[in-house]
Specification:
single chain, 217 residues, alpha+beta, seven-stranded antiparallel β-sheet, two-stranded antiparallel ribbon, elongated, binds zinc ion
Amino acid sequence: MTRKFRKPCVQEFTKQQENDAGIIMSIHSDPARETMNCPVCKTQTLLPIELENGLPAYHCETCSGTWLMSNEYLRWLKNQPQQAVPEIEATPSLNLDVPIAKTCPNCGYFMLRFDVLPGHTLIVDRCSNCNGIWFDHQEWDALSARGLHTRINEFFTKPWQDKLKSIESHQKLDTLYREKLGEADYQKVREIREWIRKNPHQAMLFAFLQSDDPYKI
Ligand SMILES: [Zn+2]
Ligand SMILES: [Zn+2]
């Protein structure tokens, strides 16, 4: 995707903002440094761009990574229409991460890495001090294509990370059962399980199945 370059602008900041889900995103109020270097390429200066309409960001021309200030993101987010929460779909696995520890181009703190999508190597780096966010090449576009670019703030919360772990563990066990039982038996046992769970005589069905001789009193 080609990005429109822009001139650096004077930014407005608030001390604390809260999104509709009640997640406090940022208490950092300093403006972005005038010159910031790419956290991947180190010496390449980040250039100001307009990432989306009305969303200023900073772009590395060498590695195509993108830096986003949290206050600018929040201000843009406030003007975005409410969208239905998209389900995370199984898609061919993406591997977009540049797997190195990065330091914040804005304040120099180490950035924390957050897994975002189950089954994909899409890891967003976030500064624990100024809350700025780094997207490696194509990460923003991959999130945007899934309608997740308006939910970035949720990635750093426990509910999102817990959901991610739960989906990943489900996927792992699903693969394991399929391998061990074989496709036909796995499907059959899943159907039986569903039938038992919905049956009003669930306890009796379990007892019948588990008993060596269900006709013996
Ligand atoms: Zn770079
Ligand atoms: Zn920072």
